[in-house]
């Protein structure tokens, strides 16, 4: 395995300074092995506990720490506790996915339009709005959640706590993702494209729709994936803005029962959400790749991950 | 030539987003102030928000202030504990993230895409699921105790999950380290290998190279990562709730969460929240401004 990033560079070095090269290759090789070991340990520490959760969702017994054989009972047939038979788990799963779908469907168009506007519209008002949007990105989530909770509780809002409030909170919290990602992409799209379209007779709106939006596709895709996956995992906002058991999500469910000796059905529920978000990412990656192929861009997993 | 429609098209496109942010970000923040600086109904113990800033009272802030620095300052330990936990967790995250990010940026070679994907993976795993993972592992009869007692041979029964500060800090590190890793990786990845070669050619030892080239150039990543994990940790209550559920490890977030759940204490929750926001205001604005600036520069 070579450790040098550029083979040509390494060859050049070797030709110029063979002895020194050998020394530095030796030490940097040892360093690379040390760093590789740290990285491997880190990845194990980071991922194995989650793998154990997934594994024990298939446990044949009630224990979440002693393996009693493989079974699908916590997904399917267990009469009172499985994902299919426990209404609260089923409800949490559907509500979580419902929130993710609706919140993504609102957040992404709203954020893309906002990013388009900010790209061309100069002045104090848009600059201030941009600043506020970025603040929602770094403000502790609990502040947004409590603000909306108080607003719904003490102001006569046309909606109460529950699904609507949860979606409003989620959209507000996620709005910065499409804004930041699309603005970064817009900066690389030169205004010439739009001008050319206008010269060819397109209206301003037509130029946006037929020239700019298609070029924004990867940014829109990546922000949609990010928002979707992030909403699936949200806890603070959905909890404070929930009304009753019918608006409970999977993360709230884990928070409620994780310490109270639950069955592996809880693991099964968490696993299902993990599968859903993995599927969304895989589908997104395939879409991204086919788009890049059509554009003739060279692409790979790391450019996708880098975009994420 | 820009006609009339093109002059108005951008403000029209931006309007929905701006209205949204005003309605659901600015108004809620204002309501927090009104509730905090309002009064409490003496009979029903329900908060009475003061909508007019001229009528704002500071009774509830004084209650919180008294609990922080007064003679019966039972709010102070959680506040100090939060600062301690956050500092320890941030430093630990740096120590963990640096070698991993450096390896991925510089030595990962053909495995780079895979390693990067694995580093990003925790983003797609629910935070609660990751905490659940540790609850499972750290149970009295869980895998961790099984391993440190060598399968029950050594009579050592560590109680991890109630009031153990070590577990809570470990949970914070585990939960937030991926958010430190990515900005750090981005910064380290920008260092050109030829710069390091140049340093080496000029006679720098490995340590000097680290101290005088790599570390200074990774500062933006370290700063971004620190803010990205420290800001949310200041409002975190669920890590302590999940892994400890004990007042002895409660943080500011837990104080806020408990006040929210107690009738008549909404104003105090608001006061605590405003206190946290005041402390975080400077770093938040600084971070946002530096982002805006880098946007303009690129």
Describe the structure.
The complex is a heterodimer of chains A (308) and B (298). Chain A is an all-alpha fold. Chain A has helices spanning 7-16, 18-56, 87-120, 124-138, 141-154, 163-174, 176-188, 191-199, 204-233, 236-240, 250-257, 265-295, 301-307. Chain A has 13 helices and no strands. In chain A, helix 3 (87-120) runs parallel beside helix 7 (176-188), helix 9 (204-233) runs antiparallel to helix 12 (265-295) and helix 11 runs antiparallel to helix 12 (265-295). With 298 residues, chain B is mainly alpha-helical. Chain B has a domain at 83-251 and 282-297: Orthogonal Bundle (MetI-like fold), CATH 1.10.3720.10. Chain B has twelve helices and two strands. Classes of the chains: A mainly alpha (308), B mainly alpha (298). The interface between A and B is large, with 107 and 107 residues.
Name a few traits of the molecule.
heterodimer; A: 308 residues; mainly alpha; MetI-like fold; disordered N terminus; B: 298 residues; two-stranded antiparallel sheet; 71% helix
What is the compact description of this entry?
Chain A has 308 residues and is mainly alpha-helical. Chain A has helices spanning 7-16, 18-56, 87-120, 124-138, 141-154, 163-174, 176-188, 191-199, 204-233, 236-240, 250-257, 265-295, 301-307. Chain A has one domain: MetI-like fold, CATH 1.10.3720.10.
Give the arrangement of secondary structure elements.
The complex is a heterodimer of chains A (308) and B (298).
Chain A: H1 7-16, H2 18-56, H3 87-120, H4 124-138, H5 141-154, H6 163-174, H7 176-188, H8 191-199, H9 204-233, H10 236-240, H11 250-257, H12 265-295, H13 301-307
Chain B: H1 4-36, E1 39-40, E2 47-48, H2 59-69, H3 76-106, H4 112-120, H5 127-138, H6 143-148, H7 165-189, H8 193-201, H9 206-234, H10 238-243, H11 252-261, H12 266-297
Antiparallel strand pairs in B: 1-2
């Amino acid at each position: 395995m070579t450790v040098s990033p550029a083979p040509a560079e390494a060859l050049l070095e070797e030709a110029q300074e063979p002895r020194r090269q050998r020394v530095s290759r030796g030490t940097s090789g040892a360093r690379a092995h040390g760093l590789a070991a740290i990285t491997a340990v880190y990845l194990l520490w980071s991922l194995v506990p989650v793998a154990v959760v997934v594994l024990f969702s298939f446990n044949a017994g009630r224990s979440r720490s002693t393996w009693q054989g493989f079974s699908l009972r916590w997904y399917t047939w267990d009469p009172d506790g499985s994902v299919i038979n426990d209404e609260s788990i089923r409800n949490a799963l559907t509500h979580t996915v419902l929130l993710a779908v609706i919140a993504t469907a609102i957040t992404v168009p709203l954020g893309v339009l906002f990013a388009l506007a900010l790209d061309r519209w100069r002045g104090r008002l848009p600059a201030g709005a941009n600043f506020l949007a970025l603040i929602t990105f770094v403000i502790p989530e609990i502040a947004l959640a409590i603000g909306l909770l108080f607003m719904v509780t003490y102001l006569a809002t046309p909606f109460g706590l529950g699904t609507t409030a949860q979606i409003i909170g989620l959209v507000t919290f996620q709005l910065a993702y499409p804004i930041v990602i699309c603005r970064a992409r817009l900066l690389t799209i030169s205004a010439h494209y739009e001008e050319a379209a206008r010269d060819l007779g397109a209206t301003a709106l037509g130029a946006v729709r037929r020239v700019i939006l298609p070029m924004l596709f990867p940014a829109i895709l990546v922000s949609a994936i990010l928002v979707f996956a992030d909403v699936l995992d949200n806890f603070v906002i959905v909890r404070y803005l929930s009304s009753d058991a019918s608006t409970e999500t999977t993360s709230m469910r884990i928070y409620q029962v994780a310490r109270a000796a639950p069955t592996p059905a809880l693991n099964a529920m968490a696993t299902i959400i993990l599968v859903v978000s993995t599927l969304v990412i895989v589908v997104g990656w395939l879409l991204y790749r086919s788009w890049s192929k059509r554009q003739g861009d060279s692409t790979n997993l790391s450019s996708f991950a880098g975009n994420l | 030539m820009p006609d009339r429609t093109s002059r108005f098209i951008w403000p029209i496109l931006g309007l929905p987003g701006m209205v949204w942010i005003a309605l659901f970000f600015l108004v809620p923040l204002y309501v927090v102030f009104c509730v905090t600086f309002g009064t409490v109904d003496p009979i029903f113990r329900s908060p009475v928000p003061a909508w007019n800033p001229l009528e704002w009272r500071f009774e509830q802030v004084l209650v919180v202030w008294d609990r922080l620095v007064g003679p019966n300052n039972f709010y102070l330990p959680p506040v100090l504990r939060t600062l301690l936990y956050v500092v320890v967790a941030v430093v630990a995250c740096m120590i963990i993230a640096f070698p991993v990010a450096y390896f991925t940026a510089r030595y990962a070679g053909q495995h780079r895409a895979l390693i990067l994907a694995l580093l990003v993976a925790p983003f797609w795993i629910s935070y609660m699921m990751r905490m659940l993972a540790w609850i499972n592992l750290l149970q009295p009869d869980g895998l961790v105790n099984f391993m440190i007692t060598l399968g029950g041979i050594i009579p050592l029964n560590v109680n991890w999950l109630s009031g153990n500060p070590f577990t809570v800090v470990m949970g914070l590190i585990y939960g937030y380290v991926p958010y430190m890793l990515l900005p750090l990786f981005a910064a380290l990845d920008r260092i050109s290998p030829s710069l390091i070669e140049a340093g080496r050619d000029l006679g720098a030892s490995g340590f000097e190279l680290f101290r005088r080239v790599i570390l200074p150039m990774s500062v933006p990543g370290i700063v971004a990562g620190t803010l990205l994990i420290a800001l949310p940790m200041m409002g975190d209550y669920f890590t302590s709730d999940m892994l400890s559920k004990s007042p002895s490890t409660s943080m500011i977030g837990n104080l806020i969460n408990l006040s929210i759940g107690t009738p008549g204490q909404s104003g105090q929750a608001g006061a605590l929240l405003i206190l946290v926001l005041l402390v975080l205001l400077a770093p938040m604005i600084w971070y946002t401004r530096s982002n805006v600036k880098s946007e303009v520069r690129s």
